[in-house]
Design goal:
With 189 residues, the protein is of the alpha+beta class. Helix content is 59%, strand content 14%. A four-stranded antiparallel beta sheet has the order 3-4-6-5. The protein has a two-stranded antiparallel sheet with strand order 1-2.
Length: 189
């Protein structure tokens, strides 16, 4: 086992966390189709506590362009709180309530809306690229510090830098794949 394995293990944990984060962010971006992940980031003021929507309601997709949100607690106040949270979100959707559940219809996106969403996706991915570069910089600094402290030789330090770059290239490819997939999803009718 290489002396710099702890640096790579730590980097792997951080990059996995970044990939999970971007997946959550992209899942909450609206496309032409309904998806429960669309409302994953919505938090509801549930009896004074900010609670994720999926913890207080069942979310289903009965049709391609329809989300149905049925609170576990059937009180009208909870339905109103969920409705208020959806209005506050940046989804741009107008829920219809029957007092027991909410229906979210996904209107088709216009071409202009689609291009704005693609730009938003690209911006989110770029923000996560910056986070990855920062993680690479920190890992490289750790390797340099280990060399300075005498824990790594010059050759091992160079190998550590190469291993860190290799790991980041793999993660950046996954980021690119996420970008392409989400862009395709947004642009198709």
């Amino acid at each position: 086992m290489e002396p710099y394995a702890s640096i790579l293990a730590d980097l792997k944990l951080k990059t996995d966390k970044t990939l999970k984060h971007i997946k959550e962010q992209l899942g909450s971006i609206r496309t032409g189709r309904a998806s429960p992940t669309l409302v994953d980031t919505i938090r509801v003021d549930y009896y004074g506590t900010s609670t994720p929507l999926h913890q207080i309601a069942h979310i289903s997709v009965p049709e391609a362009r329809l989300l149905v949100i049925k609170p576990f607690d059937g009180s009208q106040q909870v339905v109103k709180d969920i409705e208020k949270a959806i209005h506050k979100s940046d989804l741009g959707l107008n829920p219809q309530s029957d007092g027991k559940q909410l229906r979210l219809s996904m209107p088709p996106l216009s071409g202009e809306q689609r291009h704005k969403l693609v730009a938003k996706v690209k911006d989110l991915v770029e923000q996560n690229r910056v986070a990855l570069r920062n993680e690479r910089r920190d890992a490289n600094k750790l390797a340099d510090q280990m060399k300075k402290d005498g824990k790594l030789t010059e050759d091992l330090c160079k190998k550590a830098h190469e291993a860190i770059d290799k790991e980041l290239k793999v993660v950046e490819q996954k980021l690119d794949e996420s970008l392409r997939a989400k862009t395709k999803e947004i642009l198709e009718e």
